[in-house]
Amino acid sequence: MTTFYAVVAGDPLDSGGYVLDGGNGGTIAGDDGTRRRIAFVGQWAWCSTCESVGTIEAAPGAPANGPMRDFAHAGRIQALSNDWVRCRCERAPRIVSRYGRKWKIEAPGCDTGYTDASRGCVIRL
């Protein structure tokens, strides 16, 4: 079983940098009590390694159905821990979920490796 955590504004990248605030959408309170906006695929993040703004992309093998869809805002897909940021770096940085860890899904059978490009695994909450 694989556990995925929500990504929110301010979450760090493994290369340095952070997820930028995307505006619309709900919020999640972190352990410090601060409410931060939920991040979505297509939103931006700042990479301090290459000093550029990149776009959040879904990591292969992560789920994209069930609770990850925001139907109030055109069906956007919620960003999850280990999604990556397409910036100018040779290796796309991964997002580390730090502040949105109160929201998680456990997905049996989801492959978080790079070989499975499907995001259609079954979600069980």
**Per the principal axes of the C-alpha atoms, what is the gross shape?**
globular
The appropriate CATH architecture is Sandwich
Mean pLDDT: 80
Task: Give the number of DSSP strands.
Answer: 10
Low-confidence stretches: 112-125
Helix-and-strand structural type: mainly beta
Alpha plus pi helix count = 0
Q: Main beta sheet: strand number and arrangement?
A: 4 strands, antiparallel
- CATH topology-level fold name: Tumour Suppressor Smad4
Radius of gyration: 13 Å
Helix content: under 10%
Protein name: PAAR domain-containing protein
Organism: Burkholderia latens
Structure explained in plain terms:
The protein is mainly beta and 125 residues long. The protein is built from no helices and ten strands. The termini are close together.
How do the strands and helices of this protein lay out in sequence?
Blueprint: E1 2-5, E2 18-19, E3 27-29, E4 35-37, E5 44-47, E6 52-57, E7 69-70, E8 76-77, E9 84-86, E10 104-107
Antiparallel strand pairs: 1-10, 2-5, 3-4, 5-6, 6-9, 7-8
Keywords summarizing the entry:
26% strand; 10 strands; PAAR domain-containing protein; disordered C terminus; Tumour Suppressor Smad4; 125 residues; four-stranded antiparallel sheet; 0% helix
